[in-house]
Amino acid sequence: AQRVTQPEKLLSVFKGAPVELKCNYSYSGSPELFWYVQYSRQRLQLLLRHISRESIKGFTADLNKGETSFHLKKPFAQEEDSAMYYCALRGSGNTPLVFGKGTRLSVIA
Amino acid sequence: GAVVSQHPSWVICKSGTSVKIECRSLDFQATTMFWYRQFPKQSLMLMATSNEGSKATYEQGVEKDKFLINHASLTLSTLTVTSAHPEDSSFYICSARDETVTQYFGPGTRLTVL
Fold this sequence. Notes:
The complex is a heterodimer of chains A (about 110) and B (about 110). Chain A is mainly beta and about 110 residues long. Chain A is about 0% helix and about 45% strand.
């Protein structure tokens, strides 16, 4: 079974502080991992995917197969980063995305 | 980038009536679309996978006779909530997948059943 766990419902950090949003997954095969972001009153947007290994808006995420984790990190948080962040997994066979429960990031000025 | 639209964005209906929600991929063809449901302050729960020209695949616990899905073309999928009841009130979000297998999301439709 596929499962995505985001242990923190809410994470508050000060502007300029480092951010780490945790994501752990459960999947027997080789998954694809994603981070989606939802700003206030906006639709869900793809932030990054592990296979592209790119940095978007200063965010990075590394897939750690040993720890089955895909934590999202940013060295210096900005106020505009305040949003809901969802970690998602896609298994083999182009199956649908399965989402974690999300973490609300609040960056305090 | 790819855009997915939903219509209507907000609908209020009386208990017992049916409501149809449309999902369109505006600038790409989507052989596969997905319908999710999101309760307040909760994550997206997959309801069904919609494939163009074939029957939808429903997730466990989702009543296919209550949530009718039609994917008649490569750019349009519809979700009809039949005989709606107050417990069906929720935020319904569709997602369309392009040829790179990237999922793009619509803005969602808020359904309120009185």
